[in-house]
Amino acid sequence: MVRKWQRFAEPALSAVPIQPYPVNSALRWVLLAVFVVYLLTGGATETRFLVPIGLGVALVVMGATEAAFYRFRRKPERLLQAWSVIVFCDVFVLVLATLVDSDEHSPIPAIAVATIFSASEMFRPRYVVTLAITAALAFGIEHAAVDLAQGQTSFATPIIWAIVLVGVGSFASTRGLADEKLRRELIEAERREREQSDSLRDALASVRSSESRFETFSDHAPALMLMFDQEAKLTFRNSFPEPVTAPLATADGAPIPGLTLSAEDARQVTLAVSAAVQGAAQSVDISVMSQGGRRLRLRGAAFQIESGAGVILRDVTTELELASQVSRAQQLETVGTLAGGVAHDFNNLLTAILGNLYLVKGSLPEDSPALPLVDEAKFAGERGAELVRRLLDYGRPTLDRVDSTDLNNLIRATVELARPALSPRVSVEAKGCDGATVLGNFGSLQQVLLNLLFNARDAMPEGGAIRISCREIALPDHLVAGPGGEFWEIAVSDTGIGMSAETSARIFDPFFTTKEIGAGSGLGLATSLSIVRAHGGSISVESEEGKGTTFRVHLPATSADRS
Fold it and tell me: From CA 424, how far away is CA 419, in angstroms rounded?
């Protein structure tokens, strides 16, 4: 019931309640006082018995009205709801006052006209018209009853008042029709705006979701993704190869923030993007240095997009390194096969030569002048035989016996064996690994470590430090000769003169040496590589000129180590 009344008494558009204080409340009490004085000075002579009832009802209504006014004086919405009830109560009190007055020429119904006008300021037309009709019926019935009681048969007065009240109510309500129309239009406009807002919000949410998916996808893509505007200015860069916190518009004008390019590569990117903006796709092949210090080779293409140009560059560093390793491995395999075949035949020749030299030496007297010549020829033949043995080890490395080899014992024994051949100015620090064992040939692995120690010694003619360390690591298949998995790494580092990148790239080539002529054969590291590969492992080198060199030997861990 309350909700129905609230819908019926819905306020007009932008309506504000008539403030009760101070004018309205004071005027109500003044009117009541005037009516009481009127009654006390001789009015309502024919209905004296109704005066106490009328005054009592009026006082009750006035008290309730004042209570509502005071309670809701600072609550406009609740005050409007109170007014919707008070107005009907006012009409009821005015009808009762007219009945008490019992004068068909009483001016009290005129006050009802003012009440209807006041209601039209606060409520919608249906409320105002209903109030006017109610007032017209009430006053009409009241006047008709009084006329009948006085023996009059003419109902002109009630009809006139009914017409006046309904007319006034209709006229007052028409003022709200324009507001009602405007209200409906505003509600419709608000509904359309809300729908458009919802559609826009959904569209924005979809765009944000798409942007989030694109950023997530691009950040996890194994490629560098760039976007440029029509002026070839960078507008987007994903996090490959590592997150970049610098702004896109870098101070030095670098085309790709977070990556250091040479002048030629920067020019290539700029030209490719400019051409792509004009609609011509261009290939891009650059070398960059990341902010983490990684040297990368990137290849891809620049192409036109709607708002400018896009560039996608893939990291081909590993592919190129693998291709280079495969090519080198094929070359070394060819050289090894050739060297093994030549060394085998040459070994047969040296065997005959050395055998005949032994026979010649045995047939010569001790004071023969030819004896020193024979000894010199014999020494040269033995050196040749040693070279042939090393060629055979490089071309066809053989492991006569494979046992469980303790790397701690291997490192300690090798250092003790090599120490007499090291300069006093060279210090050796060796740290083994407890429980580190591999399946291998102790003598062959010791030969590998001896080669690395002597190379480190030769790289420090003025003295320095050699450090040997051991640790367990995991390696993928493409980095070792056998299957990947858990490996023991033996690192041999020195503080010597180091090597350039070009020298490091050829350090394992057979017959390549950086030593003076006659000081080395160029087969030490090549043979070491062959021996380690025969064990299913690998060797890598890290070096920088003036800062020293580190060789890392990787050997497969045994099953006991893995468990």
Answer: 9
Residue pointed to by tokens 């240095």:
289
Looking at per-residue pLDDT, the higher value among 171 and 348 belongs to 348
Classified as helix, coil or strand, 36 is helix
**What percent helix, strand, coil does the chain show, rounded to 5?**
60, 15, 25
Contact assessment for residue 242 and residue 258, using Cβ atoms and an 8 Å cutoff: yes
List strands edge to edge, sheet with 282-290: 234-237, 223-228, 308-315, 295-305, 282-290, 259-261
> pLDDT tens digits for 522-543?
667 877 888 888 888 888 899 8
Q: For residue 13, give the 3-state DSSP assignment.
A: coil
| 490: β partners | 470, 553
Count other C-beta atoms under 10 Å from residue 299's C-beta.
Answer: 17
Helix (H) or strand (E) holding 162: helix 156-220
The number of residues in the chain equals: 563
Model confidence pTM above 0.85: no
- As beta bridge partners, residue 487 has 473, 556
d(CA 355, CA 407): 40
3-state class (DSSP) for residue 503: helix
